[in-house]
């Protein structure tokens, strides 16, 4: 008989949280019991799961008792606040926030790339940054054939990365601008409708924003390649839920385009989208709601004999966040790295 698990979603009402709920259902994750946790603001709300309306509970210290698996997507502060309680309760926490990603004791996992790293967990497994996951999915199959020496990436990031309220802000601002109004930004520091701006996460003294630093450091950790040269420019664009990225790769020898195309065509979790005649390539609208990262426009970099250029779009909420987290949970189950806790009787 298949084991089933007591699961909690921390941040269940958010953009990623509601997708987690959907994926647990559609992928038939063996759920014995599901707890939906959010802030006190959500008390009284319900969310649908397998035809039932489940109550959302404000998180408190007793919320994790008897829980086997916590899927957390409620921001870094909330993850930091509850991690010890979760681990002490004997649950495994798959954390979508950046709180523990660079902690040497916390595996940072993309199941298609470094599944074995998950075995080293001490109660917490981190889900990488969304832009990092999407880029790594396209670069890893090539890196396997010939180690990449340098990555230069520019992102075109949808508003979903800033949460459900940011998605609402894009809808409302767009409507307001079309009505001839000048909306005041609330979630973002600048207007996002009919605009774009460099990612607004905090800047370091070298001029890189946090999002760019995440892409650099996390890729090195996931690839186990601390010396990998990588630089990023992250930009927020008025797209609802899928990120796109222009990626330039440098290898130590020429990398034939046809070989790259063949490798990506058979890579798990990647879909090659290239119609050169129609000039049609990955687009965020096509990537939205899809599990695969769409990759295309693979071409020789004319400025470098060992360079390749590619373009990708991937659903930020799915593979960039919720899907990767659920795949980590599935990996734990498949490898028997997640044990159901004995439940109190009586
Ligand atoms: P709530 O809806 O009650 O505010 P998003 O990334 O889409 O903005 O979603 C963030 C998620 O994190 C929401 O489910 C939100 O719940 C939850 N959240 C935010 N702050 C806290 C907190 N202090 N404690 C628990 N959950 C939180």
Strand content: 15-25%
- Annotated CATH homologous superfamily of the largest domain: Dihydrodipicolinate Reductase, domain 2
* Backbone structural class: alpha/beta
Q: Domains counted in the coordinates: how many? A: 2
**Helix and strand sequence:** EHEEEEHEEHEHEHEEEHEHEEH
How is the largest sheet built, in terms of strand order? 3-4-2-1-5-6-7
Total count of helical runs of at least 4 residues: 8
- Gyration radius over CA: 20 Å
- Under the CATH scheme, the architecture of the largest domain is 2-Layer Sandwich
Major sheet details:
7 strands, mixed
Could you please say which CATH topology of the largest domain applies here?
A: Dihydrodipicolinate Reductase, domain 2
Task: Name the ligand types.
Answer: adenosine-2'-5'-diphosphate
Question: How many β-strands, per DSSP?
Answer: 15
The averaged pLDDT comes out at 97
Could you estimate the helical fraction of the residues in percent?
A: 25-40%
Q: pLDDT below 50 for ≥5 consecutive residues: which ranges?
A: none
CATH class of the largest domain: Alpha Beta
Sum up the overall morphology in one term.
globular
Distance between the termini: 23 Å
